[in-house]
Amino acid sequence: MLVRDAQEGIEVFMLKRPGRGAFPDLHVFPGGKVDQRDEGFDELCDSLDDSEASKLLAVNSDGLRYWIAAIRECFEECGVLFANRDSREFNYTDAAEVERFDKVRHELDDDGDFKGFLQANRLILATSRVHYFSHWITPEFAPARFNTRFFVAELPVNQLAVKHATEHVAGSWINPKNALRKFSTKEWQMIVPTLTSLRMLCGYCTVRELLDAVRTERHKIPVTPSLHAQGIQYDPNRW
Fold first, then answer.
1. What residues pair up with 136 in beta bridges, in sequence order?
2. In angstroms, what CA-CA distances link 159 with 4, 75, 208?
3. pLDDT digits (tens, 9 = 90+) for 192-233
4. Cβ neighbours around 195 below 10 Å, total
5. Strand partners, 10
6. Are strands 147-154 and 2-6 parallel, antiparallel or unpaired?
7. 162 and 78 in contact (C-beta within 8 Å)?
8. pTM of this prediction?
9. Distance between CA atoms of 200 and 93, rounded to whole angstroms?
10. C-alpha to C-alpha distance for 80 and 229, rounded to whole angstroms
11. Which residues, 6+ apart, have CB-to-CB distance to 123 below 8 Å?
């Protein structure tokens, strides 16, 4: 969930999926699949090693790759890159670099070399600015099954979110309450993990307030039997 402060409060960037695939026409957050390209990034992260990341996710190993996938997919799907260069937060200030990076991010869905791209441009991933939010597994009745981790991060300074040219129909910033209204009027289609996350965002007035709660795990919600049946996971150490 990519978020920013706005006049009406927090806004979140949402994408509309095309009318094909397992979940057609849905409004979603940027994201995608963890794969082999997301391994071996320990030396290219500004914080977190695999041991710490795995502990946060309650997995035995390879936890860091979830952060890498979240950052890679965010870059691919909306052009926002959480990275540092020369120990400073990276931002787009050079027009030629913007054009070159945009070309790279559209190539990532064709198995582009994300690690090589970072090394060639002296970039270190800012994993410290991407925060673990929740864990969902689609229930048995879903048309496709996913084991999904949600993360939240604030839009970096001097960067713009722009939808992928072919992967999505639309992309827009929206207040979570307004997104929920669009669902209630059937203008937008969303599923339970997205709706629950939006409702959680509604409880905060600023991004700082939200991230402070997430860092200290005060954003927990009760996992009712109904929510559990729809995918959210019981975790006695987190939920």
1. 148, 232
2. 11, 11, 18
3. 889 989 999 999 999 999 999 999 888 877 767 777 776 766
4. 15
5. 5
6. parallel
7. yes
8. 0.87
9. 34
10. 33
11. 44, 81, 83, 84, 85, 90, 117
Owner of token pair 């827009």: 172
For residues 182 and 156, give the distance between their C-alpha atoms in angstroms, rounded to a whole number: 27
Which tens digit of pLDDT belongs to each residue from 159-176? 888 876 556 667 899 999
Q: Which two tokens stand for residue 135?
A: 């864990």
For residues 95 and 137, the answer to whether their CB atoms sit within 8 Å is no
- How long a stretch of residues is the chain? 239
Q: CA 15 to CA 230: how far, in whole Å?
A: 22
CA atoms within 13 A on the CB side of 120: 9
Assign 52 to helix, strand or coil.
Answer: helix
